[in-house]
Write a sequence for this structure.
């Protein structure tokens, strides 16, 4: 049984939703540059597909450990916000390493160091936001949606900036985005120490193993991991593929932005359309449409559908990413006790980052061997998520968690 909230904890901080929304805006600024344009910067410096995949995948392996351990430490701290602020400052410092000579060894090392500090940003922010959902009944999607809007706008702006300056501007844009997180962290609501400390940092991985013993939780987050990881090939090589087709940087930015626009629309409509839908059903729909998306992607250009065809496929992001993502978060908010939220988020982060890292690492050889046809492998990954999601429906949503 959880101890009762202290009098201070029952009082909703002023402008809670606004302050968290601003944080999500800033969190997604560097993501909106890194995801679509960092591979183009790597290609500019003539790294091979396998080297590009390794540089992108290595930070995911680092995040497997950094995310859960730092999140677990934050659960025991007086407040999570100072931990977030420290990570934000260290991220900006590490990002400056991209201004060193861009050799393979240096870029790989900088990417790993940056991942150590950058990885905890999202789980820490989500832990704060979801505590607000539980205590004050605020709407998570209404805060998180502003991160997607930020991502969308920076996709567009970044594409036109790079069209004018070239991909060499990517490190400068990354540093600027990470610096905004430092500023936003100064204004994040402080909710105090969690009512029950989940675990010490040294216990993070054992506690994750405990969480994974719950069948419903395990099935949902594994399906969630496959849903997210099926995007690995697109994250690493879609911009490079579009560039090879002769599509301009501005249009590439618009293609990325359109996928995020679809994501934003799903966040806006989610509560109205899917408030009563079980997480397993949401994930099954998302991964099923995701499999279709990855089957269609390689067919767009050969069938003469051109850029409009890519816009259609990018629009399916509303389901392959957004609906699946919200299904996973719905499971957390409905079934995981607050005192185990940090450990549960850490366990999920561990699994998602692990699968994403492996599939990203495999994307390099896939692209070298099969080019755009490597997307068919991602369709298989998404279908595996569909199977697991449907299997989860056989279990009660409580999954045996104790209070």
């Amino acid at each position: 049984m959880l101890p009762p909230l202290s009098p201070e904890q029952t009082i909703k901080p002023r402008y809670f939703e606004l302050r968290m929304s601003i944080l999500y805006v800033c969190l997604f600024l560097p993501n909106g540059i890194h995801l679509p344009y960092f591979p183009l910067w790597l290609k500019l410096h003539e790294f091979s597909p396998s080297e590009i995949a390794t540089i992108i995948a290595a930070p995911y392996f680092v995040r497997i450990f950094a995310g859960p351990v730092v999140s677990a430490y934050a659960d025991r701290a007086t407040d999570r916000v100072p931990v977030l602020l420290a990570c934000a400052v260290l991220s900006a410092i590490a990002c400056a390493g991209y201004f060193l000579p861009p050799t393979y060894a240096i870029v790989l090392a900088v990417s790993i160091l940056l991942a150590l500090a950058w990885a905890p940003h999202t789980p820490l922010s989500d832990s704060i936001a979801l505590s607000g959902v539980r205590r004050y009944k605020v709407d998570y999607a209404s805060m998180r949606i502003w991160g997607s809007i930020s991502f969308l706008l920076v996709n567009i702006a970044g594409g036109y900036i790079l069209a004018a300056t070239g991909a060499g501007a990517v490190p400068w844009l990354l540093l600027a985005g990470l610096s905004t997180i430092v500023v936003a962290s100064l204004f994040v609501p402080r909710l105090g120490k969690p009512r029950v400390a989940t675990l010490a940092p040294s216990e993070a991985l054992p506690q994750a193993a405990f969480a994974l013993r719950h069948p419903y939780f395990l099935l949902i987050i594994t399906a969630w991991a496959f849903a997210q990881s099926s995007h690995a090939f697109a994250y690493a090589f879609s911009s490079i593929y579009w560039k090879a087709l002769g599509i301009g940087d501005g249009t590439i930015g618009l293609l990325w932005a359109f996928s995020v626009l679809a994501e934003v629309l799903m966040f806006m409509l989610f509560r109205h359309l899917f408030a009563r839908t079980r997480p397993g059903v949401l994930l099954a729909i998302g991964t099923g449409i995701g499999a279709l998306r990855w089957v269609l992607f390689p067919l767009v250009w050969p069938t003469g559908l051109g850029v409009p065809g890519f816009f259609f496929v990018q629009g399916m992001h509303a389901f392959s990413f957004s609906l699946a993502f919200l299904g996973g978060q719905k499971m957390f908010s409905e079934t995981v006790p607050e005192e185990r939220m940090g450990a549960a988020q850490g366990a999920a982060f561990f699994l998602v980052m692990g699968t994403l890292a492996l599939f990203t690492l495999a994307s390099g050889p896939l692209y070298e061997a099969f080019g755009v046809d490597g997307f068919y492998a991602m369709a298989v990954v998404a279908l595996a998520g569909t199977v697991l999601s449907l299997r989860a429906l056989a279990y009660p949503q409580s999954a045996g968690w104790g209070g």
In short: DSSP finds 16 helices and no strands in the chain. The first helix runs from residue 16 to 44. The radius of gyration is 20 Å. Residues 197-202 have pLDDT under 50 and may be disordered.
